[in-house]
Amino acid sequence: MHSTAKRPPRFLLMLVGLLLCSNLATGLVAYLVIERLDERYSRELTTAVPGLHEVMLLAQDSTNTHRAAGNLLLARDEAEMNVIMARLQDARQTELDRITEIFIKGPPQAGDAQEPLWLASSNYNQALQEYLLLVANGKKDEALAYRLDKLRSIFDSYQSRQREESIRLNLEALRTSGELSAQAKARKGMLLGLGGWPLAAMLFMLVAFGVLGGLLWRQLHHIESEEKKLRTDREF
């Protein structure tokens, strides 16, 4: 006995296979695109955000150092001087550790975006050492004049560089975020185009069938008109 069930047309089988391959390809491309965007986002997040955070903390740490250095001139005796000096050393060590975290690769190269902050930090460190030397030698009047005339202006410049660096890092993070958003939109359009080709193909086929049907109807109408003319001529 022969089975009465009809086999699906070969065109239909090819279309189903093509749709299946298209879906698999779309899923694979989407996975790779999302994975790459996630890697770049994570890389930018682990560099820009911690850097901005460390610079903001550096501003606080350097302020603590500068305040403790100024308090040395207020010490009433040697015991109080030792207490304030210990606080200054702790604050300064915290600041130096923060600088190490910011410049994890060492001193920046000439022309690097972080070079101004590095130079400002080095200038303040040198001025602070000269100030502490005057205090250690008991030259409080000279130390006070040095603090007011030089150390304060150098510290102001140091803090100005910290603000500029935080602004730069913030703008860089915003720029990177914009680039990632633009890439995500572009990739989204590509994925939609790749996944929506069956609908486009169907619309194309409908339009093509509509045009062919219109042409066929016009041709049939023309043939009918010709037959009517021939019949009329025969009757006469």
Would you tell me the overall average pLDDT?
Answer: 78
Percentage of residues in DSSP E strands: under 5%
The DSSP helix count reads 6
Helix and strand pattern: HHHHHH
Estimated helix fraction? over 70%
Number of strands: 0
CA-based shape = rod-shaped
Sheet having the most strands: none
Q: Spans of 5+ residues with little confidence (pLDDT < 50)?
A: none
* Rg over C-alpha atoms, rounded to the nearest angstrom: 39 Å
Distance between the termini: 60 Å
Overall structural class, as computed from helix and strand content, comes to: mainly alpha
Helix and strand topology:
Elements: H1 10-45, H2 48-71, H3 78-102, H4 115-136, H5 140-195, H6 197-235
Helix pairs in contact: 1-5, 2-3, 2-5, 4-5
Description:
The protein is mostly helical and 236 residues long. The protein contains 6 helices and no strands. The longest helix is centred in the last third of the chain and has 56 residues, at 140-195. The mean pLDDT is 78.
Summarize the structure.
The protein is mostly helical. It has helices at 10-45, 48-71, 78-102, 115-136, 140-195, 197-235.
Structural descriptors:
single chain; about 240 residues; mainly alpha; rod-shaped
